[in-house]
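User: Okay, second chain of the day. Same drill as before: sequence in, structure tokens out.
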Amino acid sequence: MRAIATIAFGYAVLASTECRSETALWKAFAAKTNVMRWVGRESLVLNPYKYKDRVVAFQAWYVGSISETAIFSDRSGNLNQTLSVQSMSSKSLKKGDAVVIAVQVSGPDTGHQSENLALVELYHCRKMACSEFANFNNSGELMLTERPKPLRLMIQGGGSAGKQIVEEKRED
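Assistant: Same drill. Structure tokens below.
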């Protein structure tokens, strides 16, 4: 019995250490780059100027480049989520590389032709979908793990036995 408890405790320590190291990467990246918001690619494509003069970050895949503009999208290269980052040398990237990008969003140009994203920092992921960095949704937005919902207790009073817990249920 003691061996099982030791193994379970060791696994719990390993799992909690692993979680802490994962969150440490995105927290350190955000602090270093002054990220104001983690956004999804879809949201940034729809209205980039909502984030004007802010540093935002997202997860994406490198698609290619046109002169000094690097193009990023989702894993499939979906054109609906394509973002171009200006003045960025993409020599260290190859097509399909997963990255986490922090960009500065500048104001709209006169023709409203581009997102006007300037590179602040790039994290080149080592694992599939940047899983060593953090958890992201399909649009590249950082997903924080939820806290467990509060436990709701129904207490029934009565008699000489005092109060009795009738039902324990997690709120959904």
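The longest strand covers residues 55-66.

User: Thanks, on to the next one.
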